[in-house]
Amino acid sequence: MPPSLMYTSCLFLLIMEIFYYLNFVLGLINREVKSMSYAVEVANLVKYFGKFQALKGISFNVDEGEIYGLIGPNGAGKTTTFRIIVGLIAPTSGLVKVLGRDVETVDIDLRKKIAYLPEDAGTYRNITGYEFLKMVAEIYFPNDKSRFEEALELGIKLADLGDKIHDKMKTYSKGMKRRVQVARALMIKPKLAVLDEPTVGLDVIFAREVRETIKNFSREYGTTILMSSHNMLEVEGVCDRVALIDKGRIIAEGYVSDLLQEHGAKNLEELFVMLVRGEEE
Ligand SMILES: Nc1ncnc2c1ncn2[C@@H]1O[C@H](COP(=O)(O)OP(=O)(O)OP(=O)(O)O)[C@@H](O)[C@H]1O
Ligand SMILES: [Mg+2]
Asked: Which of 67, 107, 163, 165 has the maximal Cβ count within 10 Å?
């Protein structure tokens, strides 16, 4: 082989090698950056209660600032997943990262950036909605008067109960109590809000208003929302992406419009029935 041709071939191989190496490094950086930007990362989550397997390997990621819905019927595993994510119970196995940290290493400072609304959150009977929100603002911002006032003002706005905010909470309807609870979770402007059935027990008008509140709030403050519902139709309008969960497993995941198109379903309810039937056959 003439020396000039050999030189050209070597140069070509060297360039290819550099290109391959750069590609590899860029890929790694990209993966790292992407992983750092997830608000919630769940991989292969398994949970046993005694011998009963409630979660059978759940995996999903929630991007920062998105509204992600976990939807499925009663007993599917939504609350169990949420309780693990907010650190109330430990998983049997699997990886759970919240705001970039392994869930078991989340300290008090990070915990203050995570709001959790349990599905069965109770209210105090003998204090007013205003007093309740004031108490929450005091707990979160004990030494910061301006943040305390800002949180309280936002809470009152989100609850949107007018003068009734000054009535005792024992006089509130179910829907009014839920609104105060949603306001309580969001008023601290968390980075991540985990809302378990935020519209449970609400009539269509109240439910719609609460959904709008959640959506507008997430847009305005860039808050990541992880919410659950067993009402598949209601989440279509509020969530960016959803995971359909059944009997402890995710059976479909992605953007609502993509999922419907992919499976030729009219809505999520129809899609759910199609997928469950498909698995049973
Ligand atoms: N502490 C517990 N001990 C035993 N079993 C439990 C416990 N918590 C949940 N389970 C079981 O795990 C399964 C999932 O329950 P989970 O509360 O997560 O469902 P869900 O999807 O939130 O349902 P729902 O829509 O009714 O709130 C159910 O079969 C439930 O009975
Ligand atoms: Mg539940």
From this structure: 67
pLDDT in tens, 60-74: 999 999 999 999 989
CB 124 within 8 A of CB 133: no
* 228 in the same domain as 185: yes
Ligand 1 atom closest to the Cα of residue 81 is 18
Total of domains in the chain: 2
Give strand pairing partners of 114.
Answer: 192
In 77-135, DSSP assigns E strands to: 93-98, 101-102, 114-117
Q: With pLDDT > 90 as the criterion, what percentage of the chain qualifies? A: 66
Q: Are residues 264 and 148 in the same domain?
A: yes
Domain of residue 6, residue span: 1-35
Look at residue 156 and tell me whether its pLDDT is greater than 70.
Answer: yes
Q: How far is the CA of 79 from the centre of ligand 1 (A)?
A: 7
**Dihedral sign computed on CA atoms, order 101, 107, 110, 112:** positive
Q: Name which of 26-40, 162-176, 214-228 the model is least confident about.
A: 26-40
**Per-residue confidence (pLDDT) for residue 168, from 0 to 100:** 97
Who wins on pLDDT, 204 or 31? 204
Q: Which is higher by pLDDT, 2 or 275?
A: 275
Domain-embedded: residue 3: yes
Residue nearest to atom 11 of ligand 1 (CA): 54
Distance from C-alpha of 160 to C-alpha of 164, rounded to nearest angstrom: 9
For residue 91, report the distance from its CA to the centre of ligand 1, in Å: 14
Q: Is the CB of 190 under 6 A from ligand 1?
A: no
Q: Kindly state whether residue 186 falls inside one of the protein's structural domains.
A: yes
